[in-house]
Amino acid sequence: MSTETYFLSIGALSAALARGELSSVELVQAVIARTEAVETKVRAFNSYDREDAMAQARASDTRRAAGRALGPLDGIPIGMKDVIAVAGQPLTASSRMLEHFVSPYDATVVKRLRNAGAICWGRLNLDEFAMGSSTENSAFQATANPYALDCVPGGSSGGSAAAVAAGEAIASLGSDTGGSIRQPAAFCNLVGLKPTYGLVSRYGLIAFASSLDQIGPFGRSVDDVAHLLGVIAGHDPLDSTSYQVEIPDYRAEIARRQGPWRLGIPREYFGEGLDPEVAQAVQKAVAFYQSLGCEIKDVSLPHTEYGVGAYYIIATAECSSNLARFDGVRYGHRSKDAKDAVDLYFKSRAEGFGAEVKRRIILGTYVLSSGYYDAYYLRAQKVRTLIRNDFLAAYRDVDAILTPTAPTPAFRRGTKADPLAMYLCDIYTIGVNLAGLPAVSVPCGFSQDGRPIGMQLIGQPYQEAELLSIASAYERAHGWGQRRPVV
Asked: Alpha-carbon distance 38 to 51, whole Å?
């Protein structure tokens, strides 16, 4: 096997494990060694447990030796965003509020990965409570982009993206509320999938905005993402928003579906604020699909301009409600110098939450308050319906929509101190969450100074197989995702 086993795909590693050319113990040792070699520069992890990972690896090798391998993921280390519950491991959401909290149970996605033999590896950094677009809002550390260490890896799932890009995990899970999988994937030269709302259980995910949150995978290829989605997708009675739908063999569907497809190009996504290098890379991807015989159509999503405003009303309203449970009484940070119960509540929250989380709680509480509910929250929900209807109208004429993932490549740390400038980083991704649609970011080039660029493909509800097939057709003809960072 290659000395850089930590950069191999799930498919290649699974085949090597099946042939006996590699053991899970050897693979995990290689990943741990790589992590210890580069983590001081990348800072992707909040914590990791070497002994636990090795114990999982030994158990996998024992199963395989007995002819009881649990599937293609058996023995492969998968990183976990530190907002997804893993029994017996820290669950901090990168916040002082939960700094010492240990999860008593597994999230449904973790149970499904364990049942498939995957190794749950580490707790990956994020913007506190998943609120941010750069992983600079973590209470513990700022994660670096492996392709440009002075730049951000994106957010909020920056640790999940950086770990895979740097070879510190084979693949990972993140969560996406307004672009938190797709934008880091674009910044870190990865494939990142935000599934249809309801396809993947949210049980065991610390809630930010419950009607927008969705767990999804990061991988180095579309095939890696298909591997993971096939395991974590499916109905879960523990999640009341989980949808009952048949889960296909995504990898087989990718091989079967060869196009051509009808692709929509929304004019609203190619205007002011789009970096010229990003625009050029995405236009080249459009030209490639045209060369395949795909029908390229101009489409309009006319309510796009209202998306940022509607999103930051709905998301903050839901966050103010969800985070009310962190009160210093039941679990999490508890102030030591409170005079009474009310003082305990105020001081615990003031000490436990960071500035961005406080900002969003205050905004969300305001838009839900008496006299403002109809003016803000109710109106934002109506705009949300219009945005979803825009997408559904476009899908009468096209199979998927192609856009940039982010308006720029990764930016340097500290250059977007203004909250509004940071919020506008999500302008091309938040509509997908408001509409509950699936979308995938795929590497489509690099800037002149070596920063990755991603394109976004937005699919129809529960049509992940078609979406991944379209993405795979581009990936097979281009080698962008095979370029490795020098850390």
From this structure: 19
Q: Domains (ranges, CATH) in the chain?
A: 5-259 (3.90.1300.10)
For residue 385, the surrounding DSSP H or E stretch is: helix 379-394
Question: Would you state the structure tokens that stand for residue 193, as one six-digit string?
Answer: 């999938």
| Model pLDDT for residues 386-404, shown as the tens digit of each residue | 999 999 999 999 999 999 9
210 is catalytic: no
Strand partners, 264: 297, 401
- Cross-strand pairs, 191: 219
Beta bridge partners of 47: 123
Which of 60, 156, 160, 447 is catalytic? The answer is 156
In order, the DSSP letters of 76-97 are -EEEEETTB--TTSB--TTSGG
Q: Name which of 200, 27, 38, 192 is nearest 119 in CA terms.
A: 27
**Which residue in 9, 180, 320, 447 is the catalytic one?**
180
Which amino acid, residue 332?
G
Could you report the average pLDDT of every consecutive run of 10 residues in the chain (487 residues)?
85 97 98 98 98 98 97 98 98 98 98 98 98 97 98 98 98 98 98 98 98 98 98 98 97 95 97 95 98 97 96 97 95 94 95 98 95 94 98 98 98 91 93 98 98 98 98 97 95
Q: Is 211 a catalytic site residue?
A: no
Q: Which one of the listed residues 14, 23, 60, 81 is annotated catalytic?
A: 81
Residue 156 appears among annotated catalytic residues: yes
